[in-house]
Write a structure and sequence with these properties.
Plug_dom_sf, disordered N terminus, Maltoporin, Chain A, siderophore uptake transmembrane transporter activity, 916 residues, Phage tail protein beta-alpha-beta fold, signal, tonb box, mainly beta, five-stranded mixed sheet, transmembrane
Length: 916
């Protein structure tokens, strides 16, 4: 065989000689598990045919075939069917192979129509002609598909996938342009065009991604996958349009995405950039009060939010009494908040999923970012480990806040202290084009002492490992292994020592999940997989601090449980206007031994006096099982490119819950598992929304309404003792709830004046009814829950005066939180007692606050060591004394009412940030 290009073009020229038509040669051929080259060699040994090609054109795919008395054409048509190879047979039994293009016989006999220049691509095509052939330069030219005789009058599909070359992750919301056509990649990084055969230029442009331009020749339907590198550019002004109409196009309702870089100008308390605090300015997300830990989403309790950091669970995402977020803003990339129908892969919480993604470190150069403020400092460093293949990003943050407590005019706080720190690191490595790995580690620690005798501390730790594998252009997979731990300690040390103790609590969760994304076709995109979680909970132990302590040791028995799930979802595109997402999640929960469980007399109220039996369970023996099928359905209909309606339905199950008789989350809240006495919580929610973009997508308007019902929600008896209680179920009440509301959002995305206005009207009610008076609240009727705040308004504005100077402003208003007031008093046996109103009948005063900030960018010279940013802000500029809570104390025979507040005066802050 001849394998040189010279001979290839020489014999192409010979095919132009006119010869007489011959009777086709027929022969028999059998081959098994043979490469194309081996099949061609076998044909040459059995026939007079000789083949001319470049050996690199043939791969090592194995073929099997059996032919009896067949022509060469019938054999080659099957052999090259799934390739881009064409062939041409000369009158001298020479067979010339070509890639993509056809070789035509000249029309000198009048028997065939000679192809015109419009019949085939105008460039990069090898066409047989008289005289020597000169190949077109094919450097950086991509040939797609295989030309056929009927190609000229058809339109073909060009599809592919765009990925990050460093992390191997798909790049979504990227604009791909061919001529006047623009498409946006979906969440799989996929794109598609419908084109006629010809020569085209494909372009991609995005902020943070290297721009690319590719020349391609389209012969037939085919695939072009694109790998792009990350880039860093300093620009005068950035306008991002890739996802400007995402709110109209996507099918999921009630999804909010926040980018860490977009919130740096928003004035917040003590100058700390806080992505979760910004989330509470959006409709449907509320805090229980200023400085409160956690937040409520659409009437749900704080423990009903699943907070994920690189797919690992964070149980307490706050620092410093809830004033600061536990997530480092400098290492955070994006935050996605699902308030409605979350994807089927997520489960275990009723109200929301907060999916936080850490930035990927630079694999090209060493970079950093830092800030210095009055209370905290922050530094983040990123560097390549193996250039263009792996990188690491490390962030650390700490506080020096004790000076604030010492400067307060309150002698009771003289011995108080409060501090925190957190560290996070993420390593990414691209093994090859199909495999990449990610590893994230996170640790946070808080300690505080408000009195002179008790030191409290709590910590979060997290490890997340992910392996991503691309099977092919249609199928991707992610394997996740994560471990999360939350614990708190109370070190009580009072002079005298008789009552000194140590109290400890810990929760450990290990999560394994396999998720597969499969693109069946343009209409169906499937996600499916399996997950399992192992919970280990130490509900608490109390031990003497030293030999002088007279405290009796107490150890509540440990809890274990396994929660597993199968999930499946289908993004179904009926047409360009109508999209449907249907998801199913079947969860199975098992409470496991070792341990004992109390059995109570159902004819009596649950109390230590109604225990009828104590059952003992061996290690890993199943105590109680629960299961449920969750349905998650969303639909979107786009009436126009700028207006759409969406609806969703979602039901969920929650098998772990926090126990707290406070009005908000606290560091000493304990998480307990469902068992034979505490049932899992359930919730069903329906949502309907309208979405409109105006002014070439400059303005975004949305209105969403929702209705949610809940079962087995928790509340507690008056005076409940929740710490170190071996019969905690005797303090717990379970009932039903309902919540409904309307959320309005007006957002201006770009321009000198930008920001958003959010307003929510909502109601949240609870009902605890029973056959026993001891287990009723408010006579078994519905009453406003602790987080019922009908009116919630937020206004966030940023005005850019120049390229370096801008003003920012926040304004927040909320209806006062419900509270139970004493409405009378009476004397009994010489003592005075208080008579209280119905539960949550009254409200504390309404809350409102305004913050302002001045933002000063450093000069925009590209060539300098660091780029700086100053933020000067005043929190609560109006000096509003917003009450956090109202409580009553009986002293000297009188009932006195008090209210507490966190920040009752304006709080000025100056923070310096710089990047290098």
């Amino acid at each position: 065989m001849k394998f040189t290009q010279t001979l290839l073009f020489f014999f192409c020229g010979l095919t132009l000689l006119i010869g007489q038509e011959k009777e086709p040669l027929k022969f028999s051929l059998d081959y098994k598990e043979s490469t194309a080259k081996e099949v061609l060699e076998k044909i040459e040994t059995k026939t007079p045919y000789r083949f001319y090609f470049l050996e690199s054109w043939l791969d090592n795919t194995k073929h099997t075939g059996s032919y009896k008395n067949q022509t060469l054409e019938s054999i080659l048509d099957v052999l090259f069917k799934s390739t881009i190879l064409n062939y041409y047979i000369t009158d001298e039994n020479k067979v010339v192979l070509s890639q993509n293009s056809l070789i035509y016989r000249p029309d000198l006999t009048g028997l065939f129509k000679k192809p015109t220049t419009n019949d085939r691509p105008k460039q990069n095509v090898i066409v047989a002609k008289q005289g020597p052939l000169t190949p077109v330069n094919t450097d950086k030219i991509y040939r797609i598909g295989k030309e056929t005789l009927d190609s000229k009058n058809k339109r073909y599909t060009l599809s592919g996938k765009v990925i990050n070359s460093t992390t191997n992750e798909p790049i979504s919301d990227l604009v791909v342009t061919i001529g006047k056509q623009n498409v946006v990649t979906d969440k799989f990084g996929a794109y598609k065009f419908l084109l006629s055969p010809g020569v085209y230029t494909l372009e991609t442009k995005a902020i943070g991604i290297t721009n690319t331009k590719k020349t391609l020749v389209l012969y037939n339907s085919g695939t072009l996958n694109i790998g792009l590198e990350e880039s860093s550019e300093f620009l005068d002004e950035v306008v991002i349009n890739a996802d400007r109409d995402k709110n109209i196009k996507e099918v999921t309702t009630s999804v909010t995405q926040i980018k860490a870089e977009d919130i740096k100008t928003i004035p917040l308390i003590l100058g700390e950039r806080d992505i979760l605090k910004v989330a509470t300015t959006l409709p449907g997300i509320k805090t229980a009060g200023e400085g409160a830990m956690g937040f409520s989403v659409r009437g749900g309790k704080t423990d009903q939010n699943l907070i994920l950091l690189d797919d690992g669970v964070v149980y307490n995402p706050t620092h410093f009494f809830g004033i600061f977020s536990g997530v480092n803003p400098f290492t955070t990339g994006t935050v996605k908040i699902y308030k409605g129908s979350a994807p089927a892969e997520y489960g275990g919480r009723l109200s929301s999923v907060i999916d936080i993604s850490t930035k990927t470190g630079s694999n090209e150069a060493f970079k950093g970012e830092a800030s210095i403020g009055p209370v905290t400092s922050n530094i983040t460093l990123e560097t390549p480990v193996i250039k263009d293949k792996s990188s690491i990003i490390v962030g650390a943050r700490g506080t020096y806040s004790n000076w604030i407590l010492k400067s307060l005019d309150d002698t009771s706080l003289d011995n108080s202290q409060a501090s925190f720190f957190d560290v996070i690191s993420k390593y990414t490595h691209k093994l090859n084009d199909k495999n990449s790995i990610e590893a994230t580690g996170y640790y946070s620690y808080d300690d505080y002492k408000i009195t002179s005798d008790s030191l409290n501390s709590y910590s979060n730790s997290l490890v997340s490992l992910k392996w991503k594998h691309n099977f092919n252009e249609k199928t991707n997979s992610t394997l996740l292994l994560a471990n999360s731990q939350y614990q708190f300690n109370i070190d009580y040390d009072k002079e005298g020592g008789a009552s000194n103790f140590n109290l400890n609590y810990s929760l450990n969760e290990t999560h394994l999940k396999l998720k597969i994304d499969y693109r069946l076709n343009e209409k169906h995109k499937f996600d499916y997989g399996i997950s399992t979680k192992l919970y280990n909970v130490n509900p608490g132990s109390k031990t003497p601090k030293d030999n002088a302590s007279l405290i009796n040791p107490v150890q509540v028995q440990k809890e274990r449980a396994l929660e597993s799930a199968l999930f499946f979802s289908d993004d179904y595109k009926m047409n360009d206007k109508f999209l449907i997402n249907l998801g199913l999640r079947y969860s199975l929960y098992a409470s496991l031994g070792k341990g004992t469980r109390n059995i109570y007399d159902p004819s009596l109220p649950i109390s230590p006096l109604s225990i009828t039996e104590v059952k003992t369970y061996d290690n890993n023996e199943v105590i109680q099982t629960y299961s449920g099928l969750g349905l998650k359905a969303s639909a979107r209909y786009a009436f126009t490119p700028t207006f759409s309606l969406k609806a969703s339905f979602n039901n969920s199950f929650q098998y772990i819950q926090s126990l707290s008789n406070n009005t908000t989350a606290s560091p000493t809240d304990t998480w307990r598992l469902s068992d034979n006495n505490i049932k899992p919580q359930e919730s069903t929610q329906v949502t309907l929304g309208a979405y409109q973009n105006l002014g070439d997508d400059l303005y975004e308007i949305s209105v969403e309404g929702y209705y949610k019902t809940s079962k087995n929600i928790l509340d507690y008896k008056i005076g409940a003792d929740l710490l170190i209680n071996p019969t905690i179920e005797t303090e717990v009440l379970q009932g039903v709830g309902k919540a409904y509301g309307v959320e309005f959002l007006l957002k201006k995305k770009t321009g000198k004046l930008n920001g958003w206005l959010g307003y929510t009207y909502s109601r949240t009610y609870s009902k605890f009814d029973s056959n026993f008076a001891e287990e009723k609240i408010n006579n078994g009727d519905y009453f406003p829950s602790n987080i019922d705040k009908p009116h919630d308004l937020s206004l966030v504005l940023n005005y850019k005066m120049t390229k370096r100077f801008s003003w920012s402003m926040n304004f927040a208003y909320q209806t006062g939180r419900p509270v139970t007031y004493p409405v009378g008093k009476y004397n009994y046996n010489g003592s005075q007692y208080v008579f209280y109103s119905d539960h949550n009948k009254f409200r504390i005063p309404d809350y409102y606050r305004m913050d302002i900030g001045l933002n000063i960018e450093g000069n925009h010279k590209i060539k300098k060591f660091a780029h700086s940013f100053w933020n000067i802000s005043i929190y609560n500029v109006l000096g509003r004394n917003n009450p956090y809570s109202v409580f009553f104390v009986t002293k000297d025979g009188k009932i006195n009412a008090y209210k507490s507040s966190i920040f009752s005066v304006p709080v000025p802050t100056i923070t310096y940030n710089f990047k290098f």
